[in-house]
Each structure stands twice: as structure tokens, then as C-alpha cells.
């Protein structure tokens, strides 16, 4: 069975962007692949996090993975920092990365722009991501469009290591899961769980009232046509995309349904659809979150992951001369 690795940062509560762009697809993929779903807390601390909140968000993310349908009997759910090999291999990956190629990453540029105290780890985020993926002999990495560039770098680093030291890493393929879901307040910006403007995203744990309010106050384009046109009507196109993914309905069918009806009717129905989809997920979430299941699953997940990564980490260290014998 082919191997999949994918991670989500516990840097906030998972949004519709993370869900529709990544998590929703994981549920189907777990039927056909051996999946490792990681809560990448070491990535999250590349920008400042409140420690208690970060801890809580990790547990919430684990419960959300399960609530959306990841079955811990089929897939492995675990926390990155509980598997030290990620940081160990990350150092090796940093040693073979060039500063220039890391500075070219758009995520680094976006997250460091205009900030004075940018952490070195924000720059070395991609070598850690490469380590996450390569450690498991991953064949396929399902991610949103926003992560394509990091995946390309992972492949470059794996090829570089294989040719300079030892041919031990599988070169992973990216499986791009769909278009980016954009901010509800600025359709030029992607929807992000750490956006300071909470109106910009819908969190998977927003209550009915909050979710409805956010959808109704989402920016729209100047006319009233519910029509998909990313270039000229990016805001309504984004909402159409969300509607289509949530309801598993073709965009053309949605356009036909709202012809001549304007943005108001469309937004009211989109809010209702979002509430209908999220209600059962949230119910499952609270049942899981309040039980021992989260810790039991994470304990078992890190045991399994720690066991799996040792042989490859050892080979990588030996190849570079780090092991004494
Ligand atoms: N807006 C998006 N549209 C589609 N897919 C998205 N993903 C993230 N945002 C969107 C996908 O979600 C998965 C997990 O992402 P992540 O948590 O590892 O990091 P991220 O891409 O930086 O996500 P956020 O929400 O923007 O987090 P913050 O605010 O902390 O930076 C990935 O597969 C990603 O492609």
C-alpha cells in the first residue's frame, strides 16, 4: 500500500480553507493509502504562540481529524514534536538547503513581510517539512495549492541528498487537492486560520450564529450576478467554490439555481448549507474532545510513528557521518 503523509498546523482552529482544501479529501484517501496525519506543532511555533492555547489547539485538531472522518484504526494521527526524528532529520535537511532557495519561498515572504522580529525558523520551515515527509518513505503528499512550492523543494532536497550521500529517500509526488479558498474579507488573500481578522475565515468550530454572520458579511463584487469569474469577480467566485465543495454540487448548477436572485439569497442558502454540514461534525467533535479518545489515539500514534522512522533516520545519519559506528 502506498504511503501518504500530510500535516496541519495547530496554529488556530482549522478553517473551511483547511477543511475543503485538505482534510475533507483525507477521509477518502485513507481507504486506499497508508496514511500518516500529523499535527505539526513545531511548524506552528515558527511564529509566536501562547503555550496553553497551542496545547489546547493540538487536542482540538486531533479531535477534529476524527470528527471529520479520519479513522484512527485505519490511519495514524500523531503530534510532530512527540517524534524527535522530525527535528533530527530537519537539521540534516537544513544542512543541504541553500539560503537563497529558502528566501524564495512565497510563504516565507508573506509571513515575514513588514515584520521586524522574524524567526530563523520561519526561513527553515521548508527543510522541516521535507524531513516530515521523507522520514516515512512517503509516496504521495496531498496538500492544498498553497503548499506546491514547499513540495517542490522537498523533492529537490531529497534528490540532492540521494545524489550527494546515499540513495535512501523516496521522491514524493504532490497531490494538489484543489484551488485555494480565499479570505472572506479579501479575495486576493488565502483564508488562514491565524488571520488577525476573524471575519476573514470560518472556523470548523464557529457556532451557527457566528458562521451565518461571517458569510452574510463576506465581501462581494460590485454587481449582483452569482457567476463564477475568478478574474473579474473573485469574491463571489470564492463563495461559489465554497458552496460547491460543501454541497458536492457543480458550480454551473449553482449558478443556474441563483440566476437573477442576487447575492442576498445565495448567501442565506450558503450559510444554511454550512450549518447543515458542520452540525454533525461539531457534535462528534465535542463527544471526542471530552473523552479520553484524543490522548489514547495520540499516544498510540506517536508510538507507531517513532517506531517507523528509526531505520531511515539512522541511514541518513550514517550517510552523513553522524553515527559513530
Ligand atoms: N485557504 C486554503 N485553501 C485551500 N487549502 C488550504 N490549506 C491551508 N489554507 C488553505 C491547506 O490546509 C493544509 C494545512 O495547512 P497548514 O495548517 O499546515 O498551514 P497553512 O497552509 O499555512 O494553513 P493556514 O490555515 O494558512 O495556517 P496559518 O494561518 O497558521 O499559516 C495544507 O494542506 C494546506 O495546503
TrEMBL record:
Any one GO molecular-function label of the UniProt entry: ATP binding
Ligand binding (ATP): 9-11, 17-18, 144-146, 181, 190-194
Keyword Cytoplasm listed: yes
One Pfam family from the record: tRNA-synt_1b
Residues annotated as binding L-tryptophan: 132
GO cellular component, one term: cytosol
Record keywords: Aminoacyl-tRNA synthetase, ATP-binding, Cytoplasm, Ligase, Nucleotide-binding, Protein biosynthesis
Subcellular location: Cytoplasm
Chief location of this protein within or outside the cell: cytoplasm
Residue interval(s) of motif 'KMSKS' region: 190-194
Enzyme class label: ligase
GO-annotated biological processes: tryptophanyl-tRNA aminoacylation
Catalytic activity line of the entry: tRNA(Trp) + L-tryptophan + ATP = L-tryptophyl-tRNA(Trp) + AMP + diphosphate + H(+)
InterPro entries registered for this protein in UniProt: aa-tRNA-synth_Ic, Rossmann-like_a/b/a_fold, Trp-tRNA-ligase, Trp-tRNA-ligase_bac-type, Trp-tRNA_synthetase
EC numbers: 6.1.1.2
TM ranges: none
Quaternary assembly: Homodimer.
Described function: Catalyzes the attachment of tryptophan to tRNA(Trp).
Family affiliation: Belongs to the class-I aminoacyl-tRNA synthetase family.
PANTHER family: TRYPTOPHAN--TRNA LIGASE, MITOCHONDRIAL (PTHR43766)
Protein name: Tryptophan--tRNA ligase
Source organism of this protein record: Natribacillus halophilus
Gene name tied to this protein: trpS
Amino acid at each position: 500500500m502506498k504511503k501518504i503523509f500530510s500535516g496541519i498546523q495547530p496554529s488556530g482552529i482549522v478553517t473551511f480553507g483547511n477543511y475543503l482544501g485538505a482534510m475533507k479529501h483525507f477521509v477518502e484517501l485513507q481507504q486506499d493509502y497508508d496514511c500518516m496525519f500529523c499535527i505539526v506543532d513545531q511548524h506552528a511555533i515558527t511564529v509566536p504562540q501562547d503555550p496553553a492555547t497551542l496545547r489546547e489547539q493540538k487536542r482540538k485538531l486531533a479531535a477534529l481529524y476524527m470528527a471529520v472522518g479520519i479513522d484512527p484504526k485505519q490511519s495514524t494521527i500523531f503530534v510532530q514534536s512527540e517524534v524527535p526524528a522530525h527535528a533530527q532529520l530537519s537539521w540534516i535537511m537544513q544542512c543541504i538547503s541553500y539560503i537563497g532557495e529558502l528566501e524564495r519561498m512565497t510563504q516565507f515572504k508573506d509571513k515575514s513581510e513588514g515584520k521586524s522580529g522574524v524567526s530563523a525558523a520561519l526561513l527553515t520551515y521548508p527543510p522541516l517539512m521535507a524531513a516530515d515527509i521523507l522520514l516515512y518513505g512517503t509516496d504521495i503528499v496531498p496538500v492544498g495549492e498553497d503548499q506546491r512550492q514547499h513540495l517542490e523543494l522537498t523533492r529537490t532536497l531529497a534528490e540532492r541528498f540521494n545524489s550527494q550521500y546515499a540513495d535512501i529517500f523516496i521522491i514524493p509526488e504532490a497531490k494538489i487537492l484543489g484551488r485555494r479558498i480565499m479570505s472572506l474579507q479579501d479575495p486576493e488573500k488565502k483564508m488562514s486560520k491565524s488571520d488577525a481578522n476573524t471575519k476573514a475565515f470560518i472556523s470548523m468550530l464557529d457556532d451557527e450564529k457566528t458562521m451565518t454572520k461571517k458569510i452574510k458579511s463576506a465581501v462581494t463584487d460590485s454587481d449582483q450576478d452569482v457567476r463564477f469569474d475568478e478574474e473579474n469577480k473573485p469574491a463571489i467566485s470564492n463563495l461559489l467554490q465554497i458552496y460547491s465543495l460543501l454541497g458536492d454540487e457543480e458550480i454551473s448548477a449553482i449558478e443556474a439555481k441563483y440566476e437573477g436572485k442576487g447575492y442576498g439569497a445565495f448567501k442565506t442558502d450558503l450559510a444554511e448549507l454550512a450549518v447543515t454540514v458542520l452540525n454533525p461534525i461539531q457534535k462528534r467533535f465535542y463527544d471526542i474532545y471530552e473523552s479520553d479518545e484524543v490522548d489514547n489515539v495520540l499516544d498510540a500514534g506517536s508510538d507507531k510513528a517513532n517506531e517507523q522512522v528509526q531505520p531511515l533516520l539512522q541511514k541518513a545519519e550514517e550517510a552523513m557521518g553522524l553515527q559513530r559506528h
